[in-house]
């Protein structure tokens, strides 16, 4: 998968190719990441990428032309047609299904805004979809773009070793994750659930599924609203709730 990011801070975005799952995906050639800086597409001495907003008000707005030229070069860098995504608080809320859809595409161009945002004509002319990583404001779109890069990278075939396969990821199941434990077996008087020490895999899987269902019901009931639990899951959730009552 190729991802191009249009950003005033390429050094920030390129951090993802330096470590972890994303770094390995880039190293293995599973993810091809390139940054394009609108400042390199200015024609004035001061390399101006922003200007004062029409209608007045605080802050500055990113100019169309440098962004447009950067996007044009990004598009031309590969024959594969890209989906152009603008990361903004006004976008649709990203969830795992949306990430899976983006990760299945051959190419993405992510636009990271700064200042108060970008000139609306750029959005009209170049942007296919607007996405948000959550209802909060960041000082720039770069971190949102890096979130998309990370979430997509882990879904690319070969990006994860089998040890942390994405399939078990909680949101892949649409449920929250179960609790995790490792050594020491007792810490400040707190032990590990016996079932995890017994090596009985079916029992362990059952316990993990029950915890995932129970914690989802307790913390994010909204995730269960549109989900019909099969008989086995319903029984596990009932058992979880009974044990809470004890
Ligand atoms: C001080 N201003 C900085 C620029 N910002 C802005 C405005 C419009 C577009 C992009 C940005 C970049 N910021 C982002 C980006 C994404 C998200 C998200 N939730 O996905 C949150 N913030 C408005 C506020």
TrEMBL record:
Its EC number is 2.1.1.228. InterPro entries: Alpha/beta_knot_MTases, tRNA_m1G_MeTrfase_C_sf, tRNA_m1G_MeTrfase_TrmD, tRNA_m1G_MTases_N, tRNA_MeTrfase_TRMD/TRM10. S-adenosyl-L-methionine binds at residues 113, 133-138. Keywords: Cytoplasm, Methyltransferase, S-adenosyl-L-methionine, Transferase, tRNA processing. GO terms for cellular component: cytosol. GO terms for molecular function: tRNA (guanine(37)-N1)-methyltransferase activity. The keyword S-adenosyl-L-methionine applies. SUPFAM superfamilies: alpha/beta knot. It catalyses: guanosine(37) in tRNA + S-adenosyl-L-methionine = N(1)-methylguanosine(37) in tRNA + S-adenosyl-L-homocysteine + H(+). It is an enzyme of class 2 (transferase). Residues 1-225 form the tRNA methyltransferase TRMD/TRM10-type domain. It is found in: Cytoplasm. GO terms for biological process: tRNA N1-guanine methylation. Specifically methylates guanosine-37 in various tRNAs. NCBIfam families: PRK00026.1, trmD. Homodimer. Belongs to the RNA methyltransferase TrmD family. This is tRNA (guanine-N(1)-)-methyltransferase. It comes from Thioalkalivibrio sulfidiphilus (strain HL-EbGR7).
